[in-house]
Amino acid sequence: MRGVYVLIIQIDKDVSMNVGALGKLTFEKGLYAYVGSAQVNLEQRIKRHFGKEKRLFWHIDYLLDDSLARIVKVLYKQANRSEECEIAKAISERGEPAAGFGCSDCSCKSHLFRIGDYRFLQESMRVLHAET
Ligand SMILES: [Zn+2]
Fold first, then answer.
1. Three-class DSSP labels, 13-28
2. Is 1:42 a contact under the CB 8 Å cutoff?
3. What's the gap in Å between 84 CA and the centre of ligand 1?
4. What separation in Å is there between the alpha carbon of 42 and the centre of ligand 1?
């Protein structure tokens, strides 16, 4: 399946970390939404985000490599890549962007946002994984 996904990430404590080329970023404790897409094998891509032993390639890999960050939910939707940025835009209206994160190849401000809740996303996307 090809599609767009949103990882809902909980960060348990304020934390500073190196995020590849972005350098050192500080994340406040809270809930975050990261938007990504996969043009082939969406399931594999999402599974990769849960793996701990992997080469750090995308910005999100650096964030999820930190033990204070964990994925609490995954939302997804069958869609073309263009929708990835539309969803990022929709989240940006309700969240605080981490400038430059995950958007090296598009013109968005960010693909990672600190959010209050993600209920508004559940109206248009399906749940793939929820932490129990
Ligand atoms: Zn974008």
1. CCEEEECHHHCEEEEC
2. yes
3. 6
4. 18
Q: Position of tokens 């598009």?
A: 106
Question: Residue 131 — φ and ψ, nearest 5°?
Answer: -70, 135
pTM: 0.94
Which distant-in-sequence residues (6+ apart) come within 8 Å of 59 by Cβ? 19, 20, 22, 101, 102, 104, 112
**CA of 82 relative to ligand 1 center, distance in Å:** 8
DSSP secondary structure code for residue 38 in this structure: E
- Quick one: which of 53, 67, 71, 59 has its CA closest to 25? 59
Distance 21 CA to ligand 1 centre (A): 17
pLDDT tens-place string over residues 48-93 = 999 988 999 999 999 999 999 999 999 999 999 899 999 999 999 9
Residue reference for tokens 């996969």: 38
